[in-house]
Amino acid sequence: SKIAVLISGTGTNMTALLYASRLPNAAFEIVLAASNNHDAAGLMTAKSEGIATFAHSHKGMDRAEHDKIMEKAVFDADAEYIVLAGYMRILSAQFVERWNGKMLNIHPSLLPKYRGLDTHKRALDAGDKVAGATVHIVSNELDAGEILGQLEVAIQPDDTPKTLSDRIRIAEHQLFPHVVNAYVSRGYSADWLFDRVRTLAV
Ligand code: GRF
Q1: What's the ipTM?
Q2: According to UniProt, where does the site described as Raises pKa of active site His lie (predicted)?
Q3: According to the annotation, is 115 in a ligand binding site?
Q4: pLDDT digits 0-9 by tens, 96-140
């Protein structure tokens, strides 16, 4: 399956997906890395790996208009799925509806806990013992679409938002390719995915 990855920053999850896509038996390939930020470091990584890239700033235009520009790049690349990997934009409702069931996101918390931003600090402030990452289908409610897989990450007593986020990032790099691969190769089966990925978490 052909996948377009949308990023805003470093794109380490995009990079993890890219290398995973080159393993034997991978069921997906990355046909585009696109960003709302021309300076996103991940674009350079993609370029150097021979992946098509696209960038268009969202500044000075309305949301739906920017989404359309991004979407055109996705169509031009012939992508069947969109994967959001640190894409720091809320998408317009029409865009989300058009890609219903074909767009996944990774979020650095054990959803439904801590939707939105500052997840690591919020988990630490709450005194949680466990944090983690979630891959879910994108729906019009922020970080609330159907959960496809999660990995737990133990919180250490001396963790800061930075140290915790670094470890969660490592977990994300394992989880995301696994879930994307399963999703595109088996079709939509949330229960199956959830069980499988939870097993890996322990
Ligand atoms: C990840 O923690 C992801 O969960 C969140 O944004 C971050 C992106 O990191 N949505 P990177 O750009 O893939 O390194």
Answers
A1: 0.97
A2: 143
A3: no
A4: 999 999 999 999 999 999 999 999 999 999 999 999 999 999 999
